[in-house]
Amino acid sequence: MPCVFLSFRKPDSRWMRDRVDRALSDRLGVERIFKSGRSITPGSDFADVLREQATSCELMCVLIGPNWLDLRDESGVRLLDREHDWVRVEIATALRAGNRVVPVLLGDATLLPDASALPAEIADLARLQFIRVPETHLPEGLAHLADEVAELLAAENPADGPGDDGPDAGPEPSATMTAHVSGGGSAYMAARDQTIRLA
Fold this sequence. Notes:
Elements: E1 4-7, H1 14-28, E2 33-34, H2 36-39, H3 46-56, E3 59-64, H4 86-96, E4 100-106, E5 131-133, H5 138-156, E6 175-179, E7 189-191, E8 194-198
């Protein structure tokens, strides 16, 4: 199941968006990246799928290019101000679910939107630490993004440490050993729960 949800506006920085998708897919595996045009199968109810994936994702990358905030429809209404704007719905759904949401700024000069410029239900986006993918250093920026996302996912799902036998493991058995000491000596601990007793 995908664990990283890519939220984006189609007209906004498409060429950089495609490179972000490729970098994350190469690093994590394409099956772990949810991208609407590729991940929703024909005949599926896309609204249900988008809401389900935004709710269940471990991490949402909100790809913000220079035109993301101010794109408008034919009547001049800002897309983000429409109640059923899908970008707005995706972000609001992930935030309500308590998922990690990471703004990804595409380009050298793109700014994180101010809370006052966002609808109230996604205003928290303005307070979240972002990752920038600069156009002038694109390969390095993509590598940095992939590294950061991989580390965040690893932190969300820490692997069992060495020697971790799981929650049902019982206490380690203790062992008592007898030592014959010539010339004097004293009792000491050889290891945890292993007692050396002088004969």
